[in-house]
Amino acid sequence: MRWDRTAWTSAAVYVAGSGVCATIALTNTHQLWRFEYARAADLCGEYLFFSAPILCAVAALHAQRLTALTAESASSFPNPLAGAHRSWRRFAALGAVLHLAILSVAAFVVWRSHGVESFSAQPYVRQLGLIVSASALGSLLGARVRSVALSGAIFGLGLLVALLIPGTHLRPFLLAGSGTFDFTYQKYSNRLIVLTVVAATAALLAATGLPHSTRPIRWARRSAAALLGVVAVVLLLPTSTFGLVDVSPSTSCMEQVPRVCGPTAMEVGTTEVGDIARSVRSAVPPDVAAVMPTSLELIRPGGVNPQGNGVEFQSFQLDDWASLVQSTIATLSGQNACLGQLPESEINNQVLGAAIVSGWIQLTTKNVVEGSFPSREVAMLRSLPEGQQIHVLISLCNQVWSCHGVDLGPLD
Questions:
Q1: 3-class secondary structure for the chain?
Q2: Which of 42, 196, 390, 412 could join 129 in a cystine, given CB atoms 3.0 to 4.6 angstroms apart?
Q3: Residue 411: its pLDDT value, please?
Q4: What is the reported pLDDT for 44?
Q5: Cβ-based neighbours of 258, under 8 Å, separated by 6 or more
Q6: Weakly modelled stretches of the chain, pLDDT under 50
Q7: Crossing angle between the packed helical segments 386-400 and 344-365, to the nearest 10 degrees
Q8: Distance between CA atoms of 121 and 124, rounded to whole angstroms?
Q9: Residue 383: is it exposed, middle or buried by C-beta count within 10 angstroms (0-12/13-18/19+)?
Q10: pLDDT in the model for residue 412
């Protein structure tokens, strides 16, 4: 059966609504997604939270129309509910094609931003599951309910759920993406992915099996019971089931001085930090460069690095050169060294010493962030003759890295 005016109108409504939702999601939210492929793909699921009710409603409207038409020609169609099968196929395909276009736009933006090449199949599974579930559920309802108010009721209920769910237990299960975390270090729980697939499969079997059932009412009841069972499982499981889990990414290193290691997916970040560290070392006197660490490691924000040579790095810093420079200088000056290994009485001196070294490096390399170092102490240090400055700096660095010994060679 070809597409009629109702089908085209329904499709146009969904495309327009999804386009508006996707535009809002990609432009009015944080921009961290622009530098990581997996995070960009995950963010694309955010608009589905609001466009899925539209998809469900238009699929129901189309299924109603097809069911009415097939009922009029019962001789050609043994089961008048065959419209549910046609409707879910058409709108699942439409939703998937439109979503692929939106994903392509997001991927192009990341490519233009020279983002990190991370990949995860999890966002695609969750988003496709929601698209299939919405189209199948809408088609199933449209084939069974003849009320002209059905589509409006579905959209209203779906919108209400979208507005209320964010503060409830179901939020991680129904929200098909957010783009708020780094897939290099974290991922969704495998149980959440399994539940998504189970829910989509249940909705799909309900919509595809109904037209071929000799007892469609019984089939519909069983399908509804299965879907409610999935919801019950979700409600009964603890929230931790849907939480994020940490991953240990594979690493690679740049074998130069300083040696910089980091997640393989963030090789572009490793390169940038290495270039910054080398430029800093070349801008300071050789004796000062000699007491800087010759090995650095990219770590996640707030990550633990016992050696103290970790540079906190996030993909968005590829577009924030000043932030990346400051992170690198902070590590070279020892601001992260020994903090967890010194008695409390010595921590203040250690922090002050590292801040003075950082301030001196910032002023020397002309990468100054006001308020990030004690200006009076640094000014006093810079007022000394150059030889005395270097002597004080070496003493401060030895103090800062004292827990690793005075020999400040490779710290790996």
A1: CCCCHHHHHHHHHHHHHHHHHHHHHHHCCCCHHHHEHHHHHHHCCCCHHHHHHHHHHHHHHHHHHHHHHHHHCCCCCCCCCHHHHHHHHHHHHHHHHHHHHHHHHHHHHHHHCCCECCCCCHHHHHHHHHHHHHHHHHHHHHHHCCCCCHHHHHHHHHHHHHHHHHHCCCHHHHCCCCCCCCCCCEEECHHHHHHHHHHHHHHHHHHHHHHHCCCHHHHHHHHHHHHHHHHHHHHHCCHHHHCEEECCCCEEEECCCCEEEEEHHHHHHHHHHHHHHHHHHHHCCHHHHHCCCCEEEEECCCCCCCCCCEEECCHHHHHCHHHHHHHHHHHHCCCCCCCCCCCHHHHHHHHHHHHHHHHHHHHHHCCCCCCCCCHHHHHHHHCCCHHHHHHHHHHHHHHHCHHHCCCCCCCC
A2: 196
A3: 33
A4: 85
A5: 274, 277, 278, 281, 292, 293, 294, 295, 296
A6: 77, 405-412
A7: 140
A8: 6
A9: exposed
A10: 37
Q: Report how far residue 39's alpha carbon sits from residue 119's, in angstroms, rounded to the nearest whole number.
A: 9
What single-letter amino acid sits at 300?
Answer: R
Q: What gap in Å lies between CA 39 and CA 286, rounded to an integer?
A: 41
Residue 409 pLDDT:
36
What is the reported pLDDT for 407? 41
Hey, where are the domains in the chain? 5-246, 253-404
Residue 59, token pair as written in the block: 């699929």
Sheet holding 251-254, edge to edge: 251-254, 259-263, 295-299, 310-312
Residue partners of 20: CB distance under 8 A and separation at least 6: none
Task: Check residue 71 and give its pLDDT.
Answer: 60
Nearest-angstrom CA–CA distance, 269 and 114:
10
Query: The whole model's pTM is what?
Result: 0.75
pLDDT recorded at residue 386? 86
Question: Given this model, what pLDDT does residue 113 score?
Answer: 79
CA-nearest of 316, 318, 368, 11 to 180 is 316
- Give the pLDDT score at 408: 37
Pairing of β 310-312 and β 251-254: unpaired
